[in-house]
């Protein structure tokens, strides 16, 4: 009788019960997921039309010759791209774009780390200061550029008044080719450093406390804990902030066009501004299309590198 009872129990244990059946059903996609694609298709179609059709048209425009009258004279192959690589203004615009990208990204990251650390400290009024620091980033770039035009005014601007008050000579901020590009960089740093700081501050507050406590027990100083513990843990968040700023900096347009339109003497002519002026001022649409494709390629390559770096950091940490 005991043997029969044990066999019955063993047989019952081998039979799939309700829980096992539920486990097998959960292994597949949930029922609601099977009807998701029909709901997503309209949005995917619209997105594809808005993204891929302009790119395809730009490619066709770059390998053809469009006259200012609007007529297309036909296929010209890679002549626009060959002209682009032989154009010294193209290389100047690439140099200006990369200069602004490197300078602004470096300064904004370093200052963002410092401000992010200060914003991560729980002090009275922290939320108010966080909201206040976000104002430059949410303000339209055109409005920011117009305000800084007034600040940089050679006679009435606040920048030269401050220099005069401390005994220095006034500066032609946007009229000197050697200073204009730095003036543009200052505007971008002022506007977007708080944005970097807020992302970094949120990342700092989300870090686990155990590694820092272990470092304190080992006798590490505050600087050593920040450099050897905090910064490596913060790298995934920092890489996201850097990636966001990378895409914006390579497409630098609004501030430059409003403040200098690429001058003086093309010293602030970014690749995006150069392409715009080529298309709408010089009326060379096909050549401008080739320039914009080169900008697209530059954004894809640099953003792809930072995306690879971010994924590698997420795997390591």
TrEMBL record:
Keywords annotated in UniProt: Cell membrane, Membrane, Transmembrane, Transmembrane helix, Transport
Alphabetical list of Pfam families matching this protein: BPD_transp_1
Gene3D superfamilies: MetI-like
Stretch list, region Disordered: 1-29
Subcellular compartments: Cell membrane
ABC transmembrane type-1 domain location: 94-308
Cellular component aspect of the GO annotation: plasma membrane
InterPro entries in alphabetical order: ABC_transporter_permease, MetI-like, MetI-like_sf
Sequence ranges of Low complexity compositional bias: 1-21
Membrane topology value: Multi-pass membrane protein
Domain of life per record: Bacteria
KW Transmembrane (keyword) present: yes
TM stretches of this protein: 35-60, 98-119, 131-151, 179-204, 229-247, 287-309
Xref: PROSITE patterns: ABC_TM1
GO annotation terms (biological process): transmembrane transport
Family: Belongs to the binding-protein-dependent transport system permease family.
The protein's name in its UniProt record: Carbohydrate ABC transporter membrane protein 1 (CUT1 family)
Lineage: Bacteria, Bacillati, Actinomycetota, Actinomycetes, Jiangellales
């Amino acid at each position: 009788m005991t043997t029969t009872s044990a066999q019955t129990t063993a047989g019952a244990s081998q039979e799939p019960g309700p829980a096992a059946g539920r486990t097998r059903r959960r292994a597949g996609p949930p029922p609601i997921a099977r009807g998701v694609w029909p709901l997503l298709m309209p949005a995917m179609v619209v997105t594809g039309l808005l993204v891929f059709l302009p790119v395809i048209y730009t490619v066709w425009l770059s390998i053809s010759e469009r006259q200012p009258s609007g007529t297309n004279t036909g296929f010209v192959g890679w002549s626009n791209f060959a002209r682009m690589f032989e154009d010294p203004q193209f290389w100047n615009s690439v140099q200006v774009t990369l200069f602004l990208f490197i300078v602004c990204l470096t300064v904004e990251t370093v200052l963002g780390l410092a401000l992010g650390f200060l914003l991560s400290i729980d002090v009275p009024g922290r939320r108010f200061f966080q909201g206040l620091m976000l104002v430059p980033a949410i303000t339209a770039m055109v409005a920011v550029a117009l305000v800084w035009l007034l600040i940089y005014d050679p006679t009435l601007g606040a920048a030269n008044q401050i220099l005069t008050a401390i005994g220095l000579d006034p500066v032609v901020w946007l009229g000197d080719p050697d200073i204009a590009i730095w003036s543009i960089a200052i505007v971008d740093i002022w506007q977007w450093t708080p944005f970097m700081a807020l992302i970094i501050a949120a990342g700092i507050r989300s870090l686990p406390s155990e590694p820092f406590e272990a470092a304190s027990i080992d006798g590490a100083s505050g600087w050593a804990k920040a450099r050897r513990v905090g910064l490596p843990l913060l790298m995934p968040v920092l890489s996201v902030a850097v990636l966001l700023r990378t895409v914006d900096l390579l497409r630098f347009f609004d501030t430059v066009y409003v403040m200098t339109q690429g001058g003086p003497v093309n010293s602030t002519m970014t690749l995006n501004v150069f392409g715009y002026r080529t298309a709408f001022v010089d009326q060379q649409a096909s050549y401008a299309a080739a320039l914009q494709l080169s900008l697209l390629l530059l954004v894809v390559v640099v953003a792809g590198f930072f995306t690879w770096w971010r994924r590698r950091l997420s795997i390591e940490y």
